[in-house]
Amino acid sequence: MEALPLADGQVLVRSTASHVLIDDSRIFYVPAFPLEEVFDPTGAGDAFAGGFMGHLARSNDLSSANLRRAMVYGATMGSFAVERFSVYRFDEIGPAEVTARARQFEDLVHFEIEPERVAG
Question: How many distinct structural domains can be found in the chain?
Answer without folding.
Answer: 1
